[in-house]
Design brief:
It is built from 3 helices and 6 strands, in the order E-E-H-E-E-E-E-H-H. It has 171 residues and is an alpha+beta fold. 18% of the residues lie in helices and 24% in strands. It has a two-stranded antiparallel ribbon with strand order 1-2. It has a two-stranded antiparallel sheet with strand order 3-6. It has a two-stranded antiparallel sheet with strand order 4-5. The longest helix has 17 residues.
């Protein structure tokens, strides 16, 4: 864990999530320099409190070493052929426009056996590429343009009025 490479970003808040399901469609862009001892991507979901502190719902870490190595070797192979290209990108999951559900666990919530209990899931996709390749395949942060990969549509929100959530507290 190299403190020089830690970067914390957060998405927007998804108010009015239907049945606890939020649709964020948010893009994070991280630039980092290799080598890093243990490159990893930490995902965490929090509730959003109007008064008081936000509470962690769950979190997980994805090791990135194999993705970084694969992107580096693909880039080197492209350079030997003459020029880098978008084909040297490494995707998770492997196919474009495919996403994967990642389980989130709260550090202090355990099941009957003492094992961590799943508290939620995030649907994720990410792409690792060399900086030279990223200049060929623009990807702006959040939902901004320009971008070619991955695309981020506006989130799907339920059609509840703002005061609807407050009436539930009184019922």
């Amino acid at each position: 864990n190299d403190k020089n490479y830690e970067k914390v970003l957060e998405s927007d808040t998804h108010w009015r999530a239907k049945k606890g399901t939020g649709s964020f469609n948010w893009r994070f862009v991280f630039n980092f320099t290799l080598p890093i001892k243990m490159p990893r991507f930490k995902l965490a979901a929090f509730d959003r409190d109007i008064i008081g502190c936000n509470d962690v719902i769950g979190e997980t870490q994805l090791p990135l070493a194999k993705f970084c190595k694969r992107a580096w070797w693909r880039y080197r192979k492209q350079i030997k052929k003459g020029a880098p290209s978008p084909e040297s990108q490494v995707r998770f999951p492997n196919k474009a426009s495919e996403k994967k559900w990642i389980k989130l666990y709260h550090p202090s919530v355990k099941d009957r056996n003492g094992d961590p209990k799943m508290q939620g899931e995030l649907e994720v996709e990410f792409v690792v590429m060399h900086k030279v390749v990223s200049d060929l395949v623009p990807a702006a942060a959040e939902r901004e343009l320009p971008t070619r990969t991955p695309s981020c549509q506006n989130p799907i929100a339920s059609n509840l009025a703002f005061c609807t959530r407050w009436t539930r507290f009184s019922s």
